[in-house]
Amino acid sequence: MKRFTALLSILLFAGLLAACGSASGSSEEKEQVVIGYFPNINHVPSMIAKEKGYYEEQLGDNIEIVYKTFSGGSDFMTALKTGEVDAGLVGPGPAMNNYTTGTDVKIIGAGSTGGTVILAREGSGIETVEDIDGKTFITPHVGCTHDVQFETSMKELGITSERINGTMVHTTGKPATYQSMFESGKVDVAVAPEPWAAVLAQETGAKVIISTDDVAFGNTLPASVLVSSGELIENDPELVQKIVNAHKDATAFINENPEEAKEIAIKDIKEITDQELSKEVIDQAWENIGFTYKVDAEAIQAFGDSSYALDFLKEKPDFTNLIDTQFIQ
Length: 329
Description:
Helix content is 46%, strand content 18%. It is an alpha/beta fold and 329 residues long. α2 (44-52) packs across α11 and α11 crosses α12.
């Protein structure tokens, strides 16, 4: 009995030590910061930051950086609202649209400019912009940045989508699938972010109908913006500043080392989409993109006004408090 009692005491003591060890281990778990982005050229700063470890450098060894990718802005914004991501790059359209419905989102920097190209499928019969009337066009999502740019350009010609009693038929899909959609003849026009515009031009013979320079807001509107939540800014501005600093480091790297940046983009896009883009495609796409962390507030407001005019927004927006520039000074 004494031997049993002694053995029981030893087992209980060992269990207590194990429990203490487990508690100690859990207390040392790293805090996670989740960064979101899309697998397209407008989001290369996040790819560079991931490859070069800029977030890790800024945030230190006690923070674990997790990267999460998205195919569209609505999914990204849902993740931001639910706390699945802390910050990241998204099109200005989804950020604006969600802000107007009460989402706690702040634009804390820009990612890139340009990169939206309108192309017609070979055999679609489309030779000019006017020929798009009555045709089917595809964008990543309804009301996304590229959609608003395209529909703004078309409205200036008096051509609108069925959504607002027009003739153009609208469908949506991941940009990586645009090539198969063209090849099957399911759509006539692609509103494509780079590098998928370059893919369509080189792989399918698609014709550029509206270039990046000519599409609405083409070279003034940020094609991607760095966002976070107002709550995170209020609770941990130092963390947000470090996130922005890492983003600025990545932007500087792109502008100083474009060829290496292209190689990193090709690798990252392949890992995410399982589609390997040629150097020629990336070179062509790169010509339509500019990389900057500075935000053009006037362009964002003008874009929001156009979104309202196209009935993507129910009320005319005021984006004065959407943009927080304190971290990019």
